[in-house]
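Still learning. Show one?

>
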Amino acid sequence: MSNNEQGLRARDVLAICSLAVSTKTMQQEHIGEKGVGFKSVFAASNQPMLLSHAWKFRFHVPGRDAMSYITPLWVTDQDIPDCISNQLSTHPQDTHLYLPLKLQAYTSEADLFLNQVATAADPCISLNMRHLKKLEINDKRQNKTTIIEKQLIGPTKLEKQPIVTFEDFSFNNLAGSIIKLCTSSGYNSFRVYTCYIDVPNSIEQRRSPKTQLILAFPCEKDYCLTSTVYTGLPVCDLGFNFLFNADFQLVTNRENVRENVPFNTFIRDHLAALLVYLLLNDLDLRKDIDRYCPSANIHQLKHSSWWLVMIDNINALISKYLSVLFDIRTGEQRYFSK
């Protein structure tokens, strides 16, 4: 895996070679809290290798030795496989991560794992990542290349708002943009809205008191979302026609949020209010309210009671602002499933 970011700094290497240490600061806009991001590579490989400018090191985890997960072993040019050497010569300024798989090569298990990796790239993940502009996956087994590229088209009709108070909820730096995602199968456009909310200590004590919320709406009516809940990467699908990204605390398998956590409930309730506020204040979204408004009756089979509360909150606010949303004063009639 190669990327063209600025490269590893000394403090980045120190964080990688430590436990529960992060270089993220309170002023930076990042997801994640516990400093375990890089450690996830050990799920796929026992010998990950990192090459970034002057930094060239690897780890070797032979068994249950906990210290081997944070003990770097310096590598020389002779230790670098040919496939990585070629990549280094072509892109010397990039940062490269080499993961020799735990699975034995040319087995059905290895093929299944690599197929899952090759098909797991959800184009919508780039909507949640400010710096990710292009993702390219080269599957040399099948001579197949998957490309996902993000293009900023311009702002939405909703003007940027430093502070928004709606009902009992507050949102900071609310802004909307239209983003185009280009893939080999074509392109799709999204209206993407970002804001920040302050998390009180009574809910959770965090390194940073603010957390980011993202709501994205596909512009094309025939676009089918494969996931609707994201924490950077896809978490689960609730069957909505919009997606949202937040720093949810997840269950161990990452396939749902932890429903008994006050912080997650706090985020969920803010997302419900933010959705209705956007419908009220962006005319383009309001035109498609029947598409974006979730219905408990239609989606009940996909939802736990915890997520149904979100739908109930959305519908309660929509009922409250019905005359505004449907522009009743003009006599125009529209219908949606409640």
Residues 2-102 form one domain. Residues 25 and 240 are 33 Å apart (CA to CA). The longest helix spans residues 262-281. The chain has nine helices and 14 strands.
